[in-house]
C-alpha cells in the first residue's frame, strides 16, 4: 500500500512554490483571456496553480506531445543539413486527474506498438507526475468506464481533505519530491475524509455507458448501425474537435514547412483527427472514409472496438471532453447508449 501523508494548504503552496523554483512545472491554471476556464500551462508561481477544477479543454498529454511539434530543421545545401530541435529537459506535471492519468498510460501502450514511436517515451521519461482527485460534471462518466480511481503513472496523488490534501506517495521519485516538505502521517480521520471525497465523486456521476466495455465491443462488432451512423453524421460538422480534445487520441500528421526562399525549412508533426475529410486520403486520390458517416462510425469502432481488442480496454477514459467540445451537441454517452439500446431492442 502506498504511504499516505497529510499536507496542509499552506504546506502545499510552499511545496509547489519550491517545485517551480527548482525546474519547469506545468499544471492547471486559469486562462488569462477566459477567467473561470482552466488550462494546462507552465506555471510561474504556486498562486497560479488551480488544483480544484472540473476539467480542461485540452488534455495534459500536450505536456509530452504539444499540438504542433517541430522535429528538426533542414537546409537544402550540398550535402543537406539536418538540425534536431527537440528538447527533452526534465519537468513536473501537476494536477492530473485520474482519467487523464489513465490516458497517459494508454498512450504509453499505443506509442510502444511496433514500429514504436520515439518522442513520446523520451518525453515521458523526463517528467514527474502529480495527480489530484476531482469532482465530476454532467459529462464525466469515468466511474462506469473504470478510470475514476486511476493512479497509473503518478508519483504522488492528492485527495482534498479538510486540512489540505491526503498525499499518496506512489514512487521513490514521489518520496524524493516531498523532501523538506511540511507533511505528517495520515490518521484514520484523514483516511475517512479522503474516502468520503471518493464516495461523493462516484455518487455525483450521472452519466454512464449502459454496457461493459466487452459487451459494447461485441455490440459494435456484430451490429449494423448504418442508420444511426447516418443520423449522427447528419449533425456532425467533421470539425475534428472531438479528437483534438481527446486525451487518448494519438494520431498525428507530419508536414514539411519551407522557408520563403525554398532553401530550407522544418519538419512539423501535429495532432490529427480521423473526423477530418482528408484523414484517410491516400496517394492516387482514394479516400477510405470519404463519407462522413464512415468517419463517425470509425471513431466509435476505434475507441470501443479495435483498441479494446488490441489493449483490453476501451480507448476512452470517460472524461467527457469530446461531448463538451462538440458544437453539434453530439454526446458520446448518448450515442453509445442509443447503439446499446438498439442492439438490445433487436436481440
Ligand atoms: S466535435 Fe462534434 S461536430 Fe466536430 S467532428 Fe466531432 S462529432 Fe463532429
Ligand atoms: S472519447 Fe471523449 S470521453 Fe472518451 S477519452 Fe476521448 S474525449 Fe474523453
Short description:
The chain is α+β, with helices and mostly antiparallel strands. The protein is built from twelve helices and twelve strands. The site of one iron/sulfur cluster has 12 residues, from helix 9.
Question: Which descriptors would you attach to this protein?
Answer:
four-stranded antiparallel beta sheet; globular; alpha+beta; binds iron/sulfur cluster; 347 residues; 2 domains; eight-stranded mixed beta sheet; single chain
Task: Please give a structural write-up.
The chain has helices spanning 9-22, 98-112, 119-125, 142-145, 172-177, 188-204, 213-222, 226-235, 241-244, 292-311, 321-325, 332-346, and strands at residues 3-8, 25-30, 38-42, 68-75, 81-84, 91-96, 127-132, 156-160, 164-169, 183-185, 252-258, 264-271. With 347 residues, the chain is an alpha+beta fold. It has two domains: 3-204, no CATH class; 213-343, no CATH class. The strands form two sheets. An eight-stranded mixed β-sheet has the order 3-2-6-7-8-9-1-10, with helices on both faces. A hairpin with a 7-residue loop joins strand 2 and strand 3 (38-42). The longest helix has 20 residues, at 292-311. It binds iron/sulfur cluster (2 copies). One iron/sulfur cluster binds at residues 236-242, 275, 325-326, 328, 330.
Amino acid at each position: 500500500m502506498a504511504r499516505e501523508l497529510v499536507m496542509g494548504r499552506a504546506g502545499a503552496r510552499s511545496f509547489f512554490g519550491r517545485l517551480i523554483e527548482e525546474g519547469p512545472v506545468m499544471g492547471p491554471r486559469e486562462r488569462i483571456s477566459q477567467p473561470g476556464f482552466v488550462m494546462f500551462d507552465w506555471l510561474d508561481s504556486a498562486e497560479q496553480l488551480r488544483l480544484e477544477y472540473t476539467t480542461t479543454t485540452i488534455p495534459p498529454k500536450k505536456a509530452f506531445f504539444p499540438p504542433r511539434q517541430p522535429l528538426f530543421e533542414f537546409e537544402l545545401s550540398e550535402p543537406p543539413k539536418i538540425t534536431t530541435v527537440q528538447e527533452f529537459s526534465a519537468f513536473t506535471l501537476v494536477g492530473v486527474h485520474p482519467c487523464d492519468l489513465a490516458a497517459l498510460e494508454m498512450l504509453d501502450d499505443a506509442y510502444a506498438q511496433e514500429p514504436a514511436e520515439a518522442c513520446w517515451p523520451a518525453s515521458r521519461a523526463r517528467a514527474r507526475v502529480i495527480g489530484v482527485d476531482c469532482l465530476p460534471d454532467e459529462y464525466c462518466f469515468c466511474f462506469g468506464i473504470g478510470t475514476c480511481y486511476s493512479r497509473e503513472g503518478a508519483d504522488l496523488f492528492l485527495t482534498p481533505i479538510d486540512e489540505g490534501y491526503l498525499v499518496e506517495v506512489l514512487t521513490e521519485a514521489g518520496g524524493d519530491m516531498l523532501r523538506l516538505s511540511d507533511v505528517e502521517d495520515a490518521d484514520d480521520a484523514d483516511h475517512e475524509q479522503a474516502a468520503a471525497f471518493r464516495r461523493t465523486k462516484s455518487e455525483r456521476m450521472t452519466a454512464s455507458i449502459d454496457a461493459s466495455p466487452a459487451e459494447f465491443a461485441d455490440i459494435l462488432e456484430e451490429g449494423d448501425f448504418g442508420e444511426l451512423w447516418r443520423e449522427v453524421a447528419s449533425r456532425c460538422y467533421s470539425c475534428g474537435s472531438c479528437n483534438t480534445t481527446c486525451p487518448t487520441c494519438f494520431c498525428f500528421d507530419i508536414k514539411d514547412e519551407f522557408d520563403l526562399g525554398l532553401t530550407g525549412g522544418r519538419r512539423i508533426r501535429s495532432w490529427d483527427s480521423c473526423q477530418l475529410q482528408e484523414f484517410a486520403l491516400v496517394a492516387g486520390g482514394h479516400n477510405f472514409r470519404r463519407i462522413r458517416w464512415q468517419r463517425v462510425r470509425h471513431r466509435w469502432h476505434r475507441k470501443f472496438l479495435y483498441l479494446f481488442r488490441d489493449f483490453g480496454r476501451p480507448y476512452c477514459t470517460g472524461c467527457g471532453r469530446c461531448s463538451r467540445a462538440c458544437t453539434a451537441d453530439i454526446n458520446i454517452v448518448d450515442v453509445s447508449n442509443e447503439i446499446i439500446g438498439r442492439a438490445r431492442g433487436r436481440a
